Each structure stands twice: as C-alpha cells, then as structure tokens.
Amino acid sequence: MPSISKENYIKAVYSLCQNDAHSVSTSALATKLNITNAATSDMAKGLSKQGFIKYEKYKGVSLTPKGEKTAIEIIRKHRLWELFLMKSLELGWEEVHSEAEHLEHQTTEFLMNKIDDFLGNPKFDPHGEPIPQKDGTIPNMEAQISLNKSQVGKEYLVKRVNDESKEVMDYFTEIGLNLNSKIKIKNFLKYDNSTIIELNDNVHSFSEKIGKRIFISQLNE
Ligand SMILES: [Zn+2]
Q1: Ligand 1 center–CA 129 separation, angstroms
Q2: What percent of the chain has pLDDT over 70?
Q3: Which of 40, 63, 86, 187 could make a disulfide contact with 196, Cβ separation 3.0–4.6 Å?
C-alpha cells in the first residue's frame, strides 16, 4: 500500500484532473499539496515506477488505471467517513472533512464496507459529493452550475459545496446554508464578480472565491 503522503498525492492528481485536463502540471500539484516543485517531481518519479501515475517531463502527471483505482478507494473512504461522523456522531458538516482526511488512510476495505452497509449504501456525502460505490462506480450527480454562473432573478437549490476550507464551511453553517437550501439571486456585481443572494429571508454577498465553492441547480418555475 502507498504511504499517506503518496495517497494524498494520488488523490490530488485525481482531483486536479477532474477540474480540467487529463494531466496536471507538477507546479499545480506543488501548489495544491503545499510542497516544493522538486519534491513534487521526485514523488512523481517514484509513483511512476510503482505504476500509479504516468509522468512525462513536459506533459505533466496523469493517473494510470491502477492509480485511478487507488484514488477512488481513498475518496470512497473519505466520503463514507464524513457521512458516518455526521450521522452517527452528529458532527457538523463543517467538522467532518478534517477528521476524514486522517481516517481515509487508516481504514481497511472490510471496515469501510461494513460502514457502507450500516449507512444503507448511500450515494452522496454530507457536502453533496458522490460516494464511489463498492464496485468502483461513481453515482451521477444532477446537472449543476457554480454560483458564479447563476442568473439574476432566478431561484436555485444548493446541491454541493466544496468542503476543503473550514473557514468557508463555518460561514455556511453560521448563515444557515445547507444542502437543498433555496436561494434567490438578487444581483451580480460586475466590479468584483460577487453574487448577492437571498437565503432564509436574509441577504448575503458571496465573493467570486466563495461562489466557486457552491454548486446549485435551478428550481423549476
Ligand atoms: Zn471532505
């Protein structure tokens, strides 16, 4: 089994490749993992030898089928733990991510399958992210856009949030923004790309940065 830092490296390649291309530059990986470019390249060479990634000097890093399988297994553990901690120990949705970051590396497949069954084989985690299933398939999400792409005057439901920043998640909790919260877009400020929304009869301004972390689907009119 790869060590914890290797697992995080594989997970980072997977998530960066989700966002755009099939491969990711070592500098983008270095930024995401908060390590030096040199350390990123060294790790790439090691993981390439072990068959988890493909690394070509000017083309960047991509996952092999073996690497992708490993990434999906780690993500499955992460998301199942988040749901378990929320449902069984009643942790807040803003608290579970950092715990799952540790637990995802320490859990056997046997225990994870037990937790999966215990939770009733759920398809989505507390932040709306799909949970990879036992057979490696990933449940489909309904069509979503980021808040930044919303239209003024329309109503939407919150379908997914990025949970990587505890501060942002704390803020969502504070203002009562949850999955399936109904929001109305009041205005879009062109000078700084912030979005003004109405939520539970209160008006909030979301910066472009926060807007990129919220995914919504339009309510039927
Ligand atoms: Zn998480």
Answers
A1: 9
A2: 96
A3: 187
